[in-house]
Write the structure tokens for this entry.
Amino acid sequence: MTDTQPHGAARPAPGASPGRPALRRSLGMLDGVAIAASSTAATTSIGIGLGVTAGVVGLHLPAIMLLAFLPILGIAGAFSRLNRVEPNAGNGYVWVGRSLSPWLGFMVGWVNIVAAVVFLAYTTAVTGSAVIQLAGDAGLHRVAGLALDPGSTAQTTGVGVLVLVAVTLTAVSGIRAAARLQGALLVFEYVVLLGFCGYGIVAGPHPFSLSWFDPFQIPSASALAQGMLLSVFCYWGFEAAFSVNEEVKDPQQASRAGITTLVTMLGLFLLGSIAFQRVLSESELAGHGAQGLAFFGNRLAGQPLAALPLVALMFSAVASLQAGVIPTARSMFAMSRDRTLGPAWSRVSPRFGTPAAGTIMIGALAAVVAGLALVLPRLADMILAAVNAIGMVVALSYALTAIAAAVRFRGLLRENPRDGIRAVVLPALSAATLLGLGGYLGWSFYASADHLELSPDNGWFLLLVPSLMVASGFLAGAWAKWGRKSPYFRTGRGTDADAPQLLAVSEPSAAR
């Protein structure tokens, strides 16, 4: 492009080749933190994820959150170091493809996309549930003769899809505007969350116990494995900061934003888990699903103050819908740029400088999957099935990315052993932990049933969903390799123009 390009058109990144699609660099570190924090959706994870996890590990939420943080911290270190030498909107897809295998790299990109679409579908229903609960608190219990039920998958999905359409259109208009909206929502969420959780810790009727931090009191090995992967799901999303690194003014800010978000999430999850266990009994924690945060608020205050946590949950769900659309569209942008996905995903809007067509298609796919989830009529059942499946495939994706970092920087073990421990040993240990947990949990699901049933209590069903996510990746990869004849499957390298320059000055000794 030349200086005669239309006003507002997206300019290529520095060094980009003519004709290669590029995203506009417009974000600062705080914008990246807002996107990553919205993607992890602390309020949603605390309000819903803690109840799901408590149903598995009982009153040991602080212990499982601390345990899960350790491998996730190793994964975050791998993301940060890889991002420093090769920032790319496809992140793990490019890093794993280059260091391990194009097939494994494609699988990382694919399962992240599928997991994100499933996440958007279930969050759509959670958003609808929050809206219906708020309507009930305001005195609206029936519409056109229909009794409103925040636990109905059909009703919550219908309302949530309307919200999904709105946030998708907002994401199309520009990532900077989306980041500002998410920043405003986050401020409200965190003020409400900190206020109610802090008060719950002080005023809760159940005594504090150090046993809450003891992982050896978790009921069984399978409960530990499932609880760990459910907690991985709660932390999932910090890497959204790395998905917008081609739109950050300084790519190093993406690394700082991701790590900052992760540490913040740990503090919030510990605060929330202690507060919930001070206020609610084990059966109350596990039994309220999407209504858990509202139930917590009602225990601590009367109306209208009790509605504030529910409003925060709705804001969190809305922000995470938008934050889920943004990095997913950019991952598909990167894969389309490499011709592993169709060209529609890498079309950059000349007006907004964003992958507008891809963003809209992601929203449409999420709406379709949300409709398919109607086979599980209870919202709580849909949430449990979705969270389990996402936790397993995200653990696989994280593990492969960490292994890629260990392979890529293995030369540091000889040149700088101290730095090599951080760059190679810690990511490798984190990967082994997640793969071991996933494998054990998969086996326990298989051994726990003798028939298939569409129920979150059926082990075969819980194993089938993530298995289908992975299997579909092999089919999509085969079409990309032999149908689209993507050059990615020959080299595993992404087409981002900034990466070769950065690699030339940053990586040669570490990659030997």
Notes: Residues 33 and 216 are 34 Å apart (CA to CA). The first strand starts at residue 142 and ends at 143.
